[in-house]
């Protein structure tokens, strides 16, 4: 067995184990950290397939930005784990069927595209070739329509998330910045001239002091 194959099996084993721990970990912070480990191993597999651009993009975008954001959100939110786990086993058969369906579809695609093809991914490429250039050429020529459809779906998701966060709520204490800028001093500060009043009782009795020496 070649050394590259040994490295691939190591990365694949750690990737599968980390992916399983993502969905089985009781602590959400640990689940996010296992997801980071899974992304690092996926980037290592892509490096073995000579897809350096995808590996670097995975580490920089997902591990460096998205996973850090997930980690901060999970740590700041008060996640009720008992409530999240309610009904887990009732949805397990449906989730298993969907997972098997997706695995079968990926097996069919990989089997028809790669297993019988002459140019298997990971073989030595020609000198001077750029996998980034080839990826861009495929995205904007052969897979242009799927790429545009995926972009529209992501845009709709972003707009939906923004609209959900900007909806008006009764307990919101948001302030309009334009109203703050237009405020003048006389609108906020009022000078009141009030007469002095004392609550202490005033004594009408005279105070007699004894002369010194007596």
Description:
With 214 residues, the protein is mostly helical. Among the domains are: 79 residues, Four Helix Bundle (Hemerythrin (Met), subunit A) (Up-down Bundle), CATH 1.20.120; 31 residues. It is 67% helix and 0% strand. The longest helix is centred in the middle third of the chain and has 28 residues.
The CATH topology of the domain at 1-79? Four Helix Bundle (Hemerythrin (Met), subunit A)
> Care to count the β-strands?
0
Poorly predicted regions are 117-123
Oligomer state equals: single chain
Q: What is the helix fraction of residues, given as a range?
A: 55-70%
* Radius of gyration (Å): 34 Å
Q: Give the overall shape.
A: elongated
Q: Tell me the CATH architecture of the domain at 1-79.
A: Up-down Bundle
Beta-sheet strand percentage? under 5%
Element-by-element helix/strand order: HHHHHHHHH
Name the CATH superfamily assignment of the domain at 1-79: NADH-ubiquinone/plastoquinone oxidoreductase chain 6, subunit NuoJ
Distance between the termini: 120 Å
> Could you report the average pLDDT, rounded to the nearest whole number?
76
Tally of helical runs: 9
Q: Structural class of the secondary structure composition?
A: mainly alpha
Biggest sheet, in brief? none
Features:
single chain; 214 residues; mainly alpha; elongated
């Amino acid at each position: 067995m070649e050394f590259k194959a040994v490295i691939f099996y190591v990365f694949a084993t750690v990737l599968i184990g980390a992916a399983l721990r993502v969905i089985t970990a009781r602590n959400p912070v640990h689940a996010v950290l296992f997801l980071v480990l899974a992304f690092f191993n996926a980037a290592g597999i892509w490096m073995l397939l000579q897809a350096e651009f995808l590996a670097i993009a995975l580490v920089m975008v997902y591990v460096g930005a998205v996973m850090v954001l997930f980690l901060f959100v999970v740590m700041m939110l008060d996640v009720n784990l008992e409530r999240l786990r309610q009904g887990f086993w009732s949805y397990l058969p449906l989730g298993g069927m969907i997972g098997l369906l997706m695995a079968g579809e990926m097996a069919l695609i990989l089997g028809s595209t790669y297993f019988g093809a002459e140019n298997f991914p990971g073989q030595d490429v020609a000198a001077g070739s750029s996998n980034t250039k080839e990826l861009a050429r495929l995205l904007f020529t052969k897979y242009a329509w799927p790429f545009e459809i995926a972009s529209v779906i992501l845009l709709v998701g972003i707009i939906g998330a923004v609209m959900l966060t900007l909806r008006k709520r009764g307990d919101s204490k948001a302030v309009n910045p334009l109203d703050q800028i237009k405020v003048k001093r006389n609108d906020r500060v009022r000078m009141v001239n009030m007469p002095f009043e004392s609550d202490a009782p005033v004594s009408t009795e005279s105070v007699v002091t004894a002369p010194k020496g007596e």
